[in-house]
C-alpha cells in the first residue's frame, strides 16, 4: 500500500471518528472558537437518559415537543440555519442525518418530514445569548415495529453563505463553518426487529468518474443493521469466475435505507455483454446472498470507458493503422527505388 493511500485511509478514519464522537458521545460542544454550542433537553419519553440524542418511545398519535438549547459563542448575532432529514446510508456505508439524494425503501413506516416539524421562522440569537429550537413531534396513527430515525442539523447561516461556491473567499472562509447534527430516534416499542435485506436495481455507472457496477441493497425493516460486511462479485452470465470483486466491512444501514453498493472495476475496461452481480451480506449472526443478471450494451460500455479516469484508452487500432501506414510508406519507397534502378 502506497503512502498516499495510507494517508487517505487515515483521513477517512479520522473524519468518521470525529463525526461519531460529535453525534453519539456528546452534542454539547463549547470549545473556544466554535460559533455556538448545542444541548438537547431530554423529555420524559426518553428511553436512555445517558445519551445526548433523542431516543423516544411514544405511542401511536402521541405528540410532544422537543427542545434544543443553543448558546451563541460569538460576539456578533448568530443567524441559525436549521434542517430536518430522515436517516439514510451513503455508498460508503455511513449513516447520514442531513439532506441528500439517497433513497428509502417502500416499506418505510412513515416519512420523517411528516412526523417532526420545525418552526418556519428564522432564529437569530444575540451575541453571547441563548435561545431554543423547538420541534413538534406527532407520531403516526398506526403502530409500527422498529425505529424511525432522522436528524436535526444546525449551522451558522453566515458561515454557510461565506463558504458557498459563489464566494471568491471560499478557501479562507471554510475554516469558520460549523454544523451540528442531533439524532432523533422514534419508536412505539423497544422490541428488537430482525432485519430483512434484498437486492434491487443493478446497473453499470460511474462514481467520481470511475466505473462501477452498482447494486441497490434495500433494508426492508425499520431497524439499524450494524457492523455489516458486504462482498460483491461480478461474473459473466453463466460463469463461475469473478471478473470484479469488492469487499467492505463495518457498514451500517439506517432503518428502511437503500444503499448503493459499488463493485469497483478499477483500471479494467467494461465490455458489452450479459453479467451477474452476486451480493453476500453478513451482520448480526445473519447472512444474505442475492444474485441478479444485468446487461451492458456496447454503447454504454464505450461511454463509461471513455469518461473513466482509470481506464486507459485502447489504441490498438490506431497503432495498427500507424504500423500499416509506415509499412506502406517503406514499401512504396522500395518499389520506387527498384523502378529507378531498373531504368538506369
Structure report:
With 344 residues, the protein is of the alpha+beta class. The protein has two domains: 3-187, Immunoglobulin-like, CATH 2.60.40.10; 197-307, Sandwich (Immunoglobulin-like), CATH 2.60.40.10. The strands form five sheets. The chain has a five-stranded mixed β-sheet. The model is unreliable at 1-6, 13-32, 168-176 and 317-321 (pLDDT under 50). It has helices at residues 3-24, 112-115, 157-162, 170-173, 298-307, 316-343, and strands spanning 36-41, 54-57, 63-72, 78-86, 88-89, 95-96, 103-104, 116-117, 123-125, 130-138, 148-156, 179-187, 197-207, 210-219, 225-236, 242-253, 257-264, 273-283, 286-296.
What is the element layout, followed by pairings?
Blueprint (H helix, E strand, L loop, with lengths): L2 H22 L11 E6 L12 E4 L5 E10 L5 E9 L1 E2 L5 E2 L6 E2 L7 H4 E2 L5 E3 L4 E9 L9 E9 H6 L7 H4 L5 E9 L9 E11 L2 E10 L5 E12 L5 E12 L3 E8 L8 E11 L2 E11 L1 H10 L8 H28 L1
Parallel strand pairs: 2-12
Antiparallel strand pairs: 1-3, 3-10, 4-9, 4-11, 5-6, 7-17, 8-10, 11-12, 13-14, 14-17, 15-16, 15-18, 18-19
Helix content: 10-25%
Q: Distance between termini?
A: 68 Å
Which band does the percent of strand residues land in? Answer: 35-45%
For the biggest sheet, the summary is: 5 strands, mixed
Fill in the keyword field for this structure.
344 residues; alpha+beta; Immunoglobulin-like; 2 domains; five-stranded mixed beta sheet; 19 strands; elongated; disordered N terminus
